[in-house]
Write a structure and sequence with these properties.
Layout lengths: L5 H17 L8 E7 L6 E6 L2 H18 L16 H13 L4 E6 L3 H4 L2 H11 L3 H11 L3 E3 L2 E3 L12 H18 L3 E5 L2 E6 L2 H18 L10 E4 L8 E6 L2 E6 L1 H14 L8 H18 L6 H22 L3 H10 L4 H8 L5 H5 L2 H4 L4 H6 L5 H5 L6
Parallel strand pairs: 1-4
Antiparallel strand pairs: 1-2, 3-7, 3-8, 4-5, 6-7, 9-10
């Protein structure tokens, strides 16, 4: 069923649907398996997409359970919670770093959403939710299975990423970890399954990571990825796309190099000549991406970085434009129109140098200027962060 058909379906079958839920007779459908590439592009993240009817029911469950569980959640948990976000989590890290907690036990839970123990999760839920029908319905969703193409697979563990209920269930499960960390007196920040524990020394961080691992694996039945979990100084840690440093004892934020690499890969994708986009569509996509990216990373100290990025980005745009002027006569006409004398324009119109080399040349830098690119509708990183975009 498509989303557009949902309203008509609910009008016709609402009473029947509600009755089956209240009587404990409702049986959820399996989720549809969808794979998307992870950041490293070498592995896939598995999503489980419920049917539209199941999405409505799960959203209804989440809306009722969220106010019940919110008071139980830790103040150090920021992911998938109303009124909380990644920026607040990063500000909390800054505060701890300023207080002198400069080593991090960076803990990675291996395939958390795929590894959640159903029995443990139901046990935790049952402590608060006393209506057996609700527990039973959630259990049915956990056991609904997965459709991979036309093949059914049972779901014996895990909560499907992509369902409206999964973020809440993950926070309910990991609140057990939060409470244990608080009981032990640790400074920590958690965003969904991404958790950093901040310590005053490397030895303390190593001891913390070693001691908390048995609790996670033996009490919560989750798996700690030993290869990705490590202890590091704050500047070596990547958390929510940022890394940290200190200036005169004050915790500061910067953009992690991998986040910059990911952004450049996306800009290359958006400025590719092989995607068949016209200029207006490309400008719109670039504008949307750049404004969103800068807004997310606005907490970082990044003025100098953005100036360098803009230099690279302008050259990328000039390369795209030069590729569009692929005929010699087109290049000649456009360079002449931009004020280049005819003999020089003829010389460059016939150049055999690479697109990238030509894009960095004096001739294009002084004709396809930053101001002309802005007038054409392109936005830039540094201009966006300094608030001169006029948004």
């Amino acid at each position: 069923m498509e989303v557009e058909s949902l309203k008509d379906y609910l009008v016709s079958y609402k009473d029947e649907l509600i009755t089956s839920i209240l009587r404990g007779k409702y049986c959820p459908n399996p989720v549809r398996r969808v794979e998307i590439p992870k950041e490293n592009r070498r592995s896939k993240r598995q999503l489980g997409i419920p049917t539209v009817v199941d999405r409505v029911i799960q959203q209804a469950i989440a809306q009722v359970l969220t106010p019940i569980y919110e008071p139980q959640f830790s103040a150090n948990s920021y992911g998938f919670r109303p009124g909380r976000n990644a920026h607040q989590a990063l500000r909390q890290c800054q505060e701890y770093i300023t207080e002198g907690y400069i080593y991090v036990a960076d803990m990675d839970l291996e395939k958390f959403f795929d590894k959640v123990s159903h029995s443990k999760l139901i046990e935790v839920l049952s402590r608060t939710i006393k209506d057996g029908r609700v527990i039973s319905l959630i259990h049915k969703y956990l056991n609904a299975g997965v459709m991979t193409k036309d093949r059914y697979e049972p779901s014996e563990q895990g909560v499907p990423q992509g369902s409206p209920l999964s973020p809440l269930l993950s926070n309910i499960m990991l609140t057990e970890l939060d409470r244990e960390l608080q009981r032990r007196g640790h400074k920590f920040v958690r965003y969904a399954d991404d958790c950093v524990i901040l310590c005053g020394s490397r030895r303390s961080a190593e001891r913390t990571l070693k001691n908390i691992t048995p609790f996670i694996e033996k009490k919560l039945f989750l798996k700690v990825n030993q290869e990705k979990s490590h202890v590091a100084y704050i500047s070596k840690v990547k958390f929510l796309g940022y890394s940290f440093y200190r200036v005169k004892g004050q915790g500061r934020l910067r953009i992690h190099p991998k986040s910059v690499q990911k952004m450049k890969a996306k800009i290359k994708e958006l400025t590719s000549r092989s995607n068949g986009w016209g200029n207006e569509r490309r400008k719109g996509a670039l504008r949307q991406y750049i404004i969103g990216w800068v807004h997310y990373f606005k907490l970082a100290d990044m003025d100098n970085l953005l100036i360098r990025i803009d230099e690279w980005y302008r050259r990328r745009l000039r390369m795209v434009i030069w590729k569009q002027w692929k005929r010699i006569r087109t290049r000649l006409a456009n360079l002449t129109k931009l004020g280049v004398n005819k003999s020089k324009a003829w010389q460059w119109a016939n150049t055999r140098k690479s697109y990238w080399h030509t894009a960095g040349s004096f001739i294009l830098s002084t004709t396809i200027t930053t101001e002309r690119l802005r007038e054409a509708g392109y936005v830039f990183f540094y201009r966006t962060i300094t608030g001169r975009l006029g948004l």
